[in-house]
Amino acid sequence: MRVNFTVNGRPQEADDVWEGESLLYVLRERLGLPGSKNACEQGECGSCTVRLDGVPVCSCLVAAGQVQDRDVVTVEGLADYAKQRDRVTSGGTALDEARQWAARGTDSQTGEGGELSPIQRAFIDAGAVQCGFCTPGLLVAADEMLERNPDPSDADIREALSGNLCRCTGYEKIMDAVRLAAARQGEEV
Amino acid sequence: MPSPTLGFARAGGAPSGTPTKITQGSQTRGGIGESTLRPDGTLKVTGEFAYSSDMWHEDMLWGHILRSTVAHAEIVSLDTGEALATPGVYAVMTYDDLPTEVRTYGLEIQDTPVLAHGKVRHHGEPVAIVAADHPETARRAAAKIKVEYRELPVITDEASATAPDAVLVHENRDDHHIGHVPHPNIVHRQPIVRGDVSAARERADVVVEGEYCFGIQDQAFLGPESGLAVPDEDGGVHLYIATQWLHSDLRQIAPVLGLPEDKVRMTLAGVGGAFGGREDLSMQIHACLLALRTGKPVKIVYNRFESFFGHVHRHPARLYYEHGATRDGKLTHVACRIVLDGGAYASASPAVVGNASSLGIGPYVVDDVDIEAIALYTNNPPCGAMRGFGAVQACFAYEAQMDKVAKELGMDPVEFRQRNAMEQGTIMPTGQPVDSPAPVAELLRRVKAMPLPPERQWESSEGADVRQLPGGLSNTTHGEGVVRGIGYAVGIKNVGFSEGFDDYSTAKVRMEVLAGEPVATVHTAMAEVGQGGVTVHAQIARTELGVTQVTIRPADTQVGSAGSTSASRQTYVTGGAVKNACELVRERVLELGRRKFGTYHPAWATAELLLEDGKVVTDGGEVLATVADVLEDEVVEIEAEWRHRRTEPFDLRTGQGNGHVQYSFAAHRAVVEVDTELGLVKVIELACAQDVGKALNPLSVIGQIQGGTAQGLGVAVMEEIIVDPKTAKVRNPSFTDYLIPTILDTPTIPVDVLELADDHAPYGLRGIGEAPTLSSTPAVLAAIRNATGLELNRTPVRPEHLTGK
């Protein structure tokens, strides 16, 4: 089957999709967006978390056919999504702006040169990234929480991120990163 | 903003001397001792970092592995016809299709079949492999392979393994341990005998015995086993793989493929955690076989279910201990027997036995010991390396014993430990003197001195915040029946590969001038698995070469072996190799400078010269030349091996020998709250104090300690692979049924870091990754015992252990 949907503000078309394929598989293997991770493929670890029409979901549990005509945001689009959120409160992305995304170059060795969202910056600064496999899902989940709740308590953070497993950090630096992003966000306002 | 305590304390005064004197690297930013950020951090937060499961190639196929559905059976027949006839399938391979006579592999003992040969020895053993154009096609084709099994009796524990009529898991052993084991179903046995336990027992005022059980823990790294094998035009293959040790993989892969090692090229793909679970091969050979058979690139990615079968686990153990002590709180003797279940294949079992025995009594001074550790061959899941490696199981048991003895003596458990704590100069049960700082009593003092979390934190003006209580949002209590407990533990772990292993590493360092600036390039085969070795290598190069720009090249087999990312060894050994290669490069650069400019300034010949901030300077700070002027177009590149102090094997009868390179110590204090009616545990805080020798990157050091602590917490209260004792089949291979701590289960982990230099190690550093995993578990158990008054001799603790009285 063919699936048409929007990923990170850009219309995408996936062809020859087998009915059993998940959104995660289509993103990773058909659209060249492997940022969403495949750690359990049974909805337990949160590594594949994306936003579907704004709601965080485990993309491994969403059948590809379910996303027809819907909006998906992945970790690859998080920086632009955050920028867009700062600028406007609702509405889509201007075409001119979408064109600029592709034009922006980054260093393939280090990734330097690209812009980061506040939560991405905070994860690096706080040391919340070790192996990094859980990071994309945590970033999408944490970004969504901070959008809803700009001044979260520790208990709020833990509750919001309880669907995302991390095996390296013991979560302490992740807590630090989310607190840091919230604090920086607060300073800007 | 609440944040954990991040204490750093250094012993010894600041370097003294003339104020003008500078040391190498002290003037260059981003060197050792700074919390520089990960070079791969940006790629990892943008989703661009290429993990092994993200590899993609034009025209690639997907591999899938058919695994045994039973634990122990003869394969009566195997029919691949229907699978091969499935549209989209390119190849199906079984044992009979293997290209050479080398059809087994293994870390130490080559006992693991690449594909089952007439027999399977554990649930989930690879039987056949399939390559197809879609992963689901490969999976469905594999399901069409018909395998007829004739089941054999299963060996599941020591009694069934060593019974007189026991079936042998491996019939014709010819490995080098068979000569000294009491039974062919025992992989390895290591006794350690020192002093006279019988005589010491007579001096004891109290003797305490205990039997303990440690469940099977899984590494549960999040990045599944995966990789991409690409056939090369010269008949070789290029494998992009997540592993802990490229060269160890290479040594095992090439003979099975029938290729010389230089035709099997390996590049490290992004590794999503390891924790010991990637020491053994998983899908490496299978992907290469299918790629060479089909002539197409083949990718294999395990799902989580398969991952539980696709790597070895932490050995489950039964441990029997006897401790004696005098009335004044001095240990008289320890006798213990540690039975590790290695499962169907040897993996790292012999080395795990060596660790469990040699570290079996913990960080204490005991002159009279009688220790025995064995690993069994059974039909349970194969077990091997996991963070802590044999020392974890022992620590769980000896720390429970220390509490029991203290209680028997009516003594404070921390004070009792401190009275018996080892220190620099203590002789280990192996006869090896501890010749660097061993601040065991001090770590306990520090962890005890940390402020306790306030009581009844769940109470607020709006009633109980159930998120802070055992049971959490399940809303099972508002504080009724909740009791707090506090427990302590301390542990000892060896650093590096032990028992005479040639544990070297290699680094290639290059220095050149690009766009007028000196640039260093570091190339090693070290597997970056998340620990931050790449960060530290760049810091070392900045310090040793006085440059700011450092490029870390991807790890591959084009450079010599770095050894394994295991045993808390990489910063020590590959860090040492990078330091050594940098020093050689620096000498060469200075030599070039002397040749070029030596006649212009006498300091070139008389002063100690350093590289700082892109310049050649004297130790008094005088600038002699820029590195750019010295090098011009010249490139200095040196590859060199580096070795730590030699170790020696343990005597097979007495266990005596200087077997270990270095020891690492951590202590924990756990604070738990237990809902005693429902048996639910909430760990409130897990404080840790650890000596790290020298923190090369303080931020990463804290991250390692907190991560290791959380894994110890997991096996204390939730993590266990459940194996059916009747069938030896795994019952919970998923994250639905095998639980690892979430952010709700994990408490705050304040860390107090001590830096007492080990003069034998580069920069005085101490390997740190594993020690915090040891003491975390027994501290939590001690706290639960303290809260409930129960004995609790097994881990993990489940609700029924706390309520079923």
TrEMBL record, chain A:
UniProt keyword Signal, yes or no: no
PANTHER family: OXIDOREDUCTASE WITH IRON-SULFUR SUBUNIT, XANTHINE DEHYDROGENASE IRON-SULFUR-BINDING SUBUNIT XDHC-RELATED
Entries under Pfam families matching the protein: Fer2 (PF00111), Fer2_2 (PF01799)
Keyword terms: 2Fe-2S, Iron, Iron-sulfur, Metal-binding, Oxidoreductase
The protein's name: Oxidoreductase
2Fe-2S ferredoxin-type domain mapped to chain residues: 1-78
GO molecular function list: 2 iron, 2 sulfur cluster binding; metal ion binding; oxidoreductase activity
InterPro entries found in the cross-reference section: 2Fe-2S-bd, 2Fe-2S-bd_dom_sf, 2Fe-2S_ferredoxin-like_sf, 2Fe-2S_ferredoxin-type, 2Fe2S_fd_BS, Beta-grasp_dom_sf, Diverse_Oxidoreductases
PROSITE patterns: 2FE2S_FER_1 (PS00197), 2FE2S_FER_2 (PS51085)
From TrEMBL, chain B:
One Pfam family, short name: MoCoBD_2
Aldehyde oxidase/xanthine dehydrogenase a/b hammerhead domain location: 46-153
UniProt feature, compositional bias: Polar residues: 17-27
Ranges where the record places region Disordered: 1-39, 454-475
InterPro entries: Ald_Oxase/Xan_DH_a/b, Ald_Oxase/Xan_DH_a/b_sf, Ald_Oxase/xanthine_DH-like, AldOxase/xan_DH_MoCoBD1, AldOxase/xan_DH_MoCoBD2, AldOxase/xan_DH_Mopterin-bd_sf
GO molecular function, one term: oxidoreductase activity
PANTHER family with a match to the protein in the record: XANTHINE DEHYDROGENASE, XANTHINE DEHYDROGENASE SUBUNIT D-RELATED
Protein name, per record: Oxidoreductase
Species of provenance: Streptomyces brasiliensis
